[in-house]
Amino acid sequence: MPAVSKGDGMRGLAVFISDIRNCKSKEAEIKRINKELANIRSKFKGDKALDGYSKKKYVCKLLFIFLLGHDIDFGHMEAVNLLSSNKYTEKQIGYLFISVLVNSNSELIRLINNAIKNDLSSRNPTFMCLALHCIANVGSREMAEAFAGEIPRILVAGDTMDSVKQSAALCLLRLYKASPDLVLMGEWTSRVVHLLNDQHMGVVTAAISLITCLSSKNPDEFKTCVSLAVSRLSRVCVCIVSSASTDLQDYTYYFVPAPWLSCKLLRLLQCYPPPEDGAVKGRLVECLETILNKAQEPPKSKKVQHSNAKNAILFEGRNNFQISKWGHWPTKFGNPWCNLCSFLSQVLKVAILAEKYAVDYSWYVDTILNLIRIAGDYVSEEVWYRVIQIVINRDDVQGYAAKTVFEALQAPACHENMVKVGGYILGEFGNLIAGDPRSSPLVQFNLLHSKFHLCSVPTRALLLSAYIKFINLFPETKATIQEVLRSDSQIRNSDVELQQRAVEYLKLSSIASTDVLATVLEEMPPFPERESSILAKLKKKKGPGAVSVELEDGKERGELNGGGDRGGDAAIAASNASTPSPSADLLGLRSAAPVSGAAPSAGSLLVDVFSEAGPAATSAGVNDDGFLSSAPPTAASEDPAPPLPESDELLNKFVCKNNGVLFENQLLQIGIKSEYRQNLGRMYLFYGNKTSVQFVSFNTTVSCPGELQSHILQLEPLVEGGAQVQQVINIECLTDFIDAPLLNIKFRYGGALQNISLKLPVTINKFFQPTEMAAADFFQRWKQLSQPQQEAQKIFKASHGMDTEVLKAKLLGLGTALLENVDPNPENYVCAGVIQTKAQQVGCLLRLEPNAQAQMYRLTLRSSKDTVSQRVCDLLAEQF
Fold it and tell me: Domain boundary residue among 269, 304, 330?
């Protein structure tokens, strides 16, 4: 909206805008707008002698109402009438209304064209600029037909003001892009090219944009621009070398003279081969070497704007030295800026090396996010797809990834690829950092939504999906997000994908129950671990064989092929062994030794439960839509067996992790993947038949202590030989508990009943929500929990070494937040978290003090409930 000054005197407009801003609800806003629309309509219809000021005021109100997202179906003719006014403010509002609201196919275009023609011939520079801006904004073919011949004449006329020339060049560029067949330069070509010698930098900059576009389509017609562009670039370089930027004082940006002009000139020269004239070519080489030399000098400012402007010129200069055009590259290629350029062109290989040689996946996430931040434009879709895949598949890095992208999104300038990664990860795992007030649900949403209007349509679609996921993760954000989805800019969006998502997500969030919403919007399942997508991308470029990654010294360091190690979590391929092996691992995750004692079996066919491939990979109990069927199980008459002797040992292995092999013998392998959110948990159990014979009457039951509730989806009673079936178990924590749920599996193999009972790895720490705390807050809370019954302490010997990274991984796996720079002793570890149960929340603080010399630990845990302190302390002590 144009600024409303005191001179305008449009008090009615100011009052109307104030009324709208003071509305307490959407309904109140609509009521006030409808009242104003009725008043304006009556004024336009009833008062035939309405003066220009009144028309301007009412048209401005209509424009404001339209920008709020409401449809306007009248007032167009009054806006057209304002174009004939001799007052600038009235004409300006008329052109603004026309540019925003009038469709390029409107019947009013002819009337508008007549008004524009009058303003272009008036020789009033202000009116001419308004008319040219309107042509460029509307850009219709009818306008191109009317003014494509007139605008070049205005552009090259000797008496045209500089501001009008600048507007004319950009207007002509807009028309050429919209209707290139109608913009024929012909006799104006040489005079347009000579605008490169104009004294006004704004005219030169606008003219370069026009000439670059024209010469890319008709290079021979504009080839005379090369010598003039080199001459102009040389004059800029003189200012760069001598720092005598007096000629470019108004165009110096953070100590860099005319960076936009330099970049445009270099880009124009890239449309042509090296100059044939030796003198011109020599001057161009001097200019490029000047740019390279200046890049090596210490920066004159530490501001990022200075380095950005400097690097922008460097990159364009580097592009002018492409081998296809020059045949040589100066020895100065070795300077650090050029090494950066080389690095940017090798982003794909950098991403692959980061994955292959990752020390841990936290480091990998940091590396790829830095890559996106530094070289966002060069990061292909495959790179950010891969980081998402790795985060989804590894729950030990999910909280760290959520925290890292949340911090990255807070940068003022954030690349769109970073927004994509941030939207995806926060939509899936934002709950892992929501305990910190600095990253509360609404803070996360507002941060993401602040990037929305800056993104392309595909990214906006991804963000809308993240928003609906937020409603499931954080019910308190529902009203805020529904308001966004309900806005006219979404449900009336011109892009059908965005409109459809907004309408469907709004309806889903309004009518679906909490359980349905949780089912539809549950976390993404793990991706099948096959070949890395970025490795496949590079293979496609270099051929189907092994891919070698070249480093800066030109040598090869390692071969990457389809079977390469990608972090130790690759799936076990199908095996053709004729007998089952005790070491066979259906999940590709080895965490427990097989239990012997079962009858030997015949043939075996092993496949990965995370893979979609392989014979009999899906049991009859899985429907086409991916849900498990709930057919009633075949009951066995025998009572459940007592828990296996090794149940407690198996349970302890899962205190700090959620995935792995829970149980295995010669017949059966049971894998588990679990996830927890507040007081709710969901387990995915994978039952693998390691034999070639059917399991008959396959039935499972779960017995929970009174403090827990469970719901189990039953399986089909037949499990084919070599097949895996998946079962989902939902767990709800009502209050703190001691005993784990008991899983009983019964089935018949070769007529003999198999009856197995073991403890499900559900421990109290699974319901931890990590909580970030500053040092002062931590110790204040620590002192508050000073009652003897609130503290549990244990001193014990380290039985698994004292590796720092292993310690951190286990503390994070416990479910708490690992707090940095809190304890005065940097060797100590402190953590904080809240155990979420349906009945209450139990805050817990933890302090682990290693004694490397004695190979001992002292573990102190304080919580608001004494039984919880002792239980968590005992659980964690077993891990070290």
Answer: 330
Q: Are residues 83 and 4 in the same domain?
A: yes
- Domain limit, last residue, from 520, 538, 555: 520
Judge whether 356 lies within some domain: no
Instruction: Show Cβ contacts of residue 361 under 8 Å, excluding neighbours closer than 6 positions.
Output: 390, 391, 394, 396, 397, 567
**Is 359 annotated as belonging to a binding site?**
no
CA dihedral 501, 502, 507, 513 (to 10 degrees): 80
Whether residue 696 sits in one domain with residue 592:
yes
* 357 known member of a binding site: no
Task: Give me the number of domains the chain comprises.
Answer: 6
403 annotated among ligand-binding-site residues? no
Domain assignment present for residue 238? The answer is: yes
The number of CA neighbours under 13 Å toward the Cβ of 844 is 34
Q: At residue 747, what are phi and psi to the nearest 5 degrees?
A: -165, 165
Q: What gap in Å lies between CA 39 and CA 79, rounded to an integer?
A: 17
Contact 335, 295 (CB under 8 A): yes
- Give which of 458, 466, 470 is closest to 495, Cα–Cα: 458
* Residue 585 Cα distances to 511, 611, 653, 661, angstroms: 44, 13, 17, 8
59 annotated as belonging to a binding site for a ligand: yes
Q: What is the pLDDT of residues 171-198, one digit of tens each?
A: 999 998 888 888 887 788 888 888 888 8
Residue with tokens 């005790």: 582
Question: How many Å apart are CA 495 and CA 457, to the nearest integer?
Answer: 8
Q: Can you read off the two tokens belonging to residue 198?
A: 């104009």
Considering the domain architecture, whether residues 169 and 259 belong to the same structural domain is answered as no
What residues make up the domain containing 6?
A: 1-30+55-98
Residue 769's closest CA among 836, 831, 818, 708? 836
12 labelled as ligand-binding?
A: yes
Q: Is 53 annotated as a binding residue?
A: yes
Q: How far apart are CA 497 and CA 505, in angstroms?
A: 12
Please write the tens of the pLDDT for every residue from 369-414: 888 877 776 677 777 788 888 888 888 889 999 999 999 898 877 8
Report strand pairing: 547-550 vs 680-689.
unpaired
CA distance linking residue 134 with residue 643, whole number of Å: 80
* Assigned domain for 478 exists: yes
Tens-place pLDDT, residues 225-258: 888 888 888 888 777 666 554 567 777 888 888 8
* 164 assigned ligand-binding residue: no
